[in-house]
Design a protein that fits this description.
This protein is of the alpha+beta class. It is built from 10 helices and 31 strands. The radius of gyration is 26 Å and the shape is globular.
């Protein structure tokens, strides 16, 4: 009985400690004139990534860290003047916040003698060379509602917007509610919001172009030569058992930026170069011109990932920071460099090889699950992540494969399983050819045998070539990694017939690697299993981690493996 009361006391004290660590804010946002709810009003702490979004009934409930006790909450919504109140006021209980409505002028354009010309402004290409992701994952402190992302679009100074279109690279939600916003551009970042009616819409389709008719909203861009067009995440409904992920197609376009902020009052951040697949269709009354960006103007490596924007690579809900863990991180010397690696789990060794310009963190959605079944060895490839490279000669998959052999020698390992994604898949195939005694079973995702349009998406190949024509925009290491994509690998289908290791060949339905090339790789391997992930792209490990992990785990755990 004493033990029972002691444990109860501990639980109560623990609850009090947790309660002291967060401040819970709740209430309702109403129209000051009509007292009607204000749907999807945003609440944010100025210049901080903290806040939330009210629901369609104007109700909200979220938490802030205790350190924000002295902060001010700014409540705002399109068509209303913002209201500011202190966090301290919420200690008295739920608050009712009244927003004063403001008149939204209807967009009008001064019409000259010349009739309007319907014009598109922005990027009309849909190729997904990188992913710019929006998603929501509720947690104790922050529900992440209100995340906003967009791009700068050049427009005619006299135009009336008819519609906005953007390309969904992948959508794993049943539905997502967005708010469309227009801002003036101030030093490359969104400035003051342009006046227009509140544009709120729902996306349900899993992939493809979404077109929003803006004619009822009468959005005028008179006097603007550039505008920031953004999508703000308001609400979502997930599918049971489905990974939560939503991504917009994008390309790393020189001279352009992708804009994002975590909350409605957080600081804007810009990722350069980058351009969302988003464009406006407008009636233009200015000089006739067309500013859409053809797909081939972009340029960077196939596996490029832009920090927090890409593929749902939020850090796992643990104290481990994959790719930067002081607890498990190690390094080993190799010829001309030093490799950084991390180990997790127990069992058969499984070596993880990431893609071009990536790092261990690319497998953040895989490491936790795979380490339940295997001794996972995740490594940063030479000159990438935290691994060092003292050489200046061209990089090659032969060099990467030799590095992996030296790493495994240092760990006294042979016959390991190898999972390679993109460039990592090319390295894995090279390992199986050059060092067959080191490879037990092999899984490759989005691998190719040679460069060029017979293996890669032709638009993407042109992207790489154009990037190479302007090396001044890249660092020496980036240039070497780009040259690697242009020159290598140099394997043949006949080479594959010598690989005896059972191999799982994977690709996304909309991969950068051409479907015929992926199928031919599987057809020429003596022991191959082919998996094409429906609706996925080259970033399937990030887009659909559950399905990807299940395939990989099942393959490596096959009972009759030699």
């Amino acid at each position: 009985m004493r033990l029972f009361w002691f444990m109860l006391l501990i639980c109560c004290l623990r609850g009090e400690v947790l309660s002291a660590q967060v401040l819970r804010l709740e209430g309702t946002v109403l129209d000051r004139t009509t007292h009607a709810p204000v749907p999807f009003a945003t609440l944010g702490i100025v210049h901080q990534p903290l806040g939330s979004v009210a629901n369609e009934r104007g109700m909200f409930k979220f938490s802030l860290p205790a350190a924000a006790a002295a902060a001010q909450v700014l409540v705002s919504c399109v068509g209303y003047a913002p209201v500011q109140l202190s966090v301290e006021e919420f200690r008295r209980g739920a608050q009712t916040i009244y927003l004063p409505p403001v008149a939204v002028p209807l967009g009008e354009v001064t019409v000259r003698a010349r009739p309007p010309q319907t014009t598109t402004f922005g990027r009309t290409g849909s190729a997904t060379f990188m992913g710019a992701n929006l998603y929501t994952e509720p947690s104790l402190v922050s529900d992440e509602l209100g995340r906003e992302q967009g791009t700068v679009v050049s427009v005619d100074p006299k135009c009336q917007v008819r519609s906005v279109s953007f390309f969904v690279a992948f959508n794993r939600f049943k539905s997502v509610i967005f708010r469309l916003q227009f801002y003036r551009v101030d030093r490359g970042l969104p400035g003051a919001a342009l006046p227009h009616k509140d544009v709120v819409f729902t996306v349900t389709q899993p992939r493809g172009w979404v077109k929003i008719d803006l004619r009822p909203y009468q959005v005028s861009l008179q006097g603007e030569r550039k505008v920031a067009v953004t999508l703000q995440w308001l609400r979502s409904e997930s599918l049971p058992g489905q990974t939560k992920a939503f991504g917009l197609a994008a390309v790393p376009t020189p001279g352009h930026t992708i804009l994002f902020r975590e909350k409605s009052q957080a600081q804007w951040q810009a990722v350069k170069p980058g351009h969302l697949s988003l464009y406006l269709t407008a009636d233009s009354y200015g000089p006739a011109r067309r500013t859409d960006l053809p797909t081939q103007q972009a340029a960077l490596s196939d596996s490029l990932r832009y920090g927090p924007l890409l593929g749902g690579l939020a850090r796992p809900a643990s104290s481990r920071h994959y790719g930067d863990s002081a607890a498990v991180g190690r390094s080993v010397a190799v010829t001309g460099g030093r490799l950084y690696y991390e180990e997790y789990g127990w069992g058969e060794p499984l070596l993880l090889l990431h893609g071009n310009s990536q790092s261990i963190e690319a497998f953040a959605a895989q490491i936790g699950e795979l380490s339940r079944h295997f001794r996972v060895i995740a490594v940063d490839t030479r000159a990438q992540g935290r691994s060092q490279d003292a050489t200046t000669t061209p990089l090659s998959y032969e060099l990467f494969a030799a590095d992996m052999r030296q790493l495994l020698d240092s760990l006294q390992l042979r016959q390991v399983n190898v999972l390679g994604w993109s460039d990592g898949g090319n390295t894995a195939l090279t390992m199986a050819l050059r060092y067959p005694s080191y490879v037990r079973r092999l899984a490759v995702m989005g691998a190719n045998l040679f460069p060029g349009t017979e293996a890669l998406n032709p638009d993407f190949w042109r992207v790489l070539q154009q990037r190479a024509a302007h090396p001044e925009a890249a660092s020496p290491t980036q240039t070497r990694l780009l040259q690697l994509l242009l020159r290598e690998p140099q394997l043949t289908f006949e080479n594959l017939t010598r690989i005896q290791a059972p191999t799982l060949v994977m690709a996304g339905e909309h991969d950068l690697i051409l479907p015929l090339h992926t199928r031919s790789i599987a057809a020429h391997l003596p022991q191959a299993t082919l998996v094409i992930f429906p609706g996925a792209t080259h970033f399937a490990p990030q887009e659909i981690p559950q399905a990807f992990n299940e395939q990989v785990t099942r393959f490596f755990r096959t009972a009759n493996a030699p």
